[in-house]
Amino acid sequence: MIATIVIAVLTCICLVLCVLLKPDIGLGKFILPLYPFIALVGAIAAIAFTPLTIGDCIDGILGAGAVNPLKILTLFISVTAISIFLDEGGFFEFLACKVLKKSGRSKIKLFIFLYITVSVLTVFTSNDVIILTFTPIILYFCKSGKIKPAPYLVAEFTAANTWSMALIIGNPTNLYIATAAGIDFLGYVRVMLLPTIAAGTVSLLVLLLLFRKSLTQPIILPDENIDVKMKDKPLCILGLIILLICTVGLAISGYINVEMWLECAVCAITLIISALLLCLFRHKKPTVVGHALGKVPYQLIPFVLSMFVIVLALDKVGITKYIADAFSYNELIEYGAGSYLASNLVNNIPMSVLFSSVIASGNAGITAVYATIIGSNLGALLSPVGALAGIMFSAITKKSGQRFSNINFILYGSCVSIVSLAAALGCLALVL
Question: Which ranges of 50-149 does DSSP label H, i.e. alpha helix?
């Protein structure tokens, strides 16, 4: 048991230090994220020095139980691939430029339009993709207009990681925890819609209060500087059609007895094949398809599977049962606050793997499941360690020369996330 705890703790500490100090490494022309390698080393150590065997790992990963990480990864990567395809086609950039143009010279309009746009897109796509797309655009716009980017960066990040709770596809943690509990698409929406609206509304009000002084002066930027052309309109239309089909398919998957991961995988493959045929018909190189496939977050596969192995080791020696026994008094508060804080110790994806096992070990109720989902999303707002979106956000701002410090991240994030967490958990209590 001691060896298992030591390996898990050391892996978590190294992950936190990696995110804060050295999130990636350079290998020639390639820049690779470091955190999957840390998780992989931890998994190998768990197999080598704990009672966990390779057979246990194979059974856990390929097993027929509710928690099948391969199916969950397939679902998330498929939806993410569709979103990245739209991004490469210029759809998100087009919308962002439209929002900037619509706001004119008013900072408050820009702030609200940006928050609403990011919120809507996050619901139907992925918060990670939205962060990757909108952060550089915000930084460029703020630099050109000679305005401080902090209010808009915080608004974007808050919206992306708050409204991602609305649908099961908004965040990989939603998928993992909900799927482990056997929750379908519509069942998820029925419970999480009200808590998401409450958290989203509260977060916007808090942000407006925090940045009220800096949003009063006009923007010095001529509208003609904003390019509103879409890179490839036919491919964007194709991508939107497939995204709509995918979302509808997820909603009815429980009624037609088709697993969600399979439906999403078919949609993603259909999009790729259709896009290639369309490019062939138009005598254009499939650049969008190639770039989209190249930007899919494949690093999530070794990362999630490695953390899953470490959790299997903790479960085998009874650690998850100890945690479950400690969370036996008030599931709403303990799992909600616990997942919120734990996300910032180990990142919200490993936290979701761990807490799913804790929920199963303690036979916790449905309240614990949804409270954990809320904590996994809103925990991303507290520090860059909380989610992959935070890691990417920090990397983008650092490269731009307008670094958004970890201290600022924590100060703004704590102000917004604590109030939003209380609002979301309060509404969850009403719904359940």
Answer: 54-62, 69-88, 91-102, 107-124, 127-145
